[in-house]
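Why do we bother with holo predictions? Because pocket geometry can differ from the apo form. Keep that in mind while you read this record for tetrahydrodeoxyuridine.
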Amino acid sequence: MSNSVEIVFSIEVLESAAELSSEDQSLLEIAYKALKDAYAPYSKFNVGTALLLKNGEVVIGNNQENVAYPSGLCAERVALFAAGAQYPDIPVTTIAITAQSDTVSIDEPLAPCGACRQVMCETENRYGQKIKVLLKGDADKIYVINSVSDILPLSFTPDKLAVK
Ligand code: THU
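The structure, written out:
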């Protein structure tokens, strides 16, 4: 007989940015500005990220592509690794992510890729600080997620490497 486990998480769906705090609105605006400077000549899919750190600093990222495709990096990891390099002791509290493309319409709020979720998850675990995730596409709709662990259930975490 097999058992199944249901993993439930909730995403808050907002109709527009007006429902966000002014701090979160401005973080999304910074992410939107950042996507304009993405280097995405191959996909023409620009992604922008803005991180709010616990000390109030904001770190941005955008996707950086390469003709050798796997050498490029997503916006989220560009921002998270820059924050890790510049502010190694400061937790990240919020990550705003948005995207725009000339070739496709992004009807739903952008869903970060699995590798970026893993890196976001590491950042949560590293500082013991939940990261709020704000996601937006072309439409006004916004998803708000209270913790990265909500969008990466059954994740590979440091305790899995604990010595026996
Ligand atoms: N991309 C991101 O920057 N973040 C994501 O979460 C999804 C995808 C980038 C990678 C690549 O430059 C382009 O979007 C198309 O996949």
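Residues 40, 43, 45, 47, 63, 65, 72, 74-76, 112-113, 116 surround tetrahydrodeoxyuridine (CB under 6 Å).
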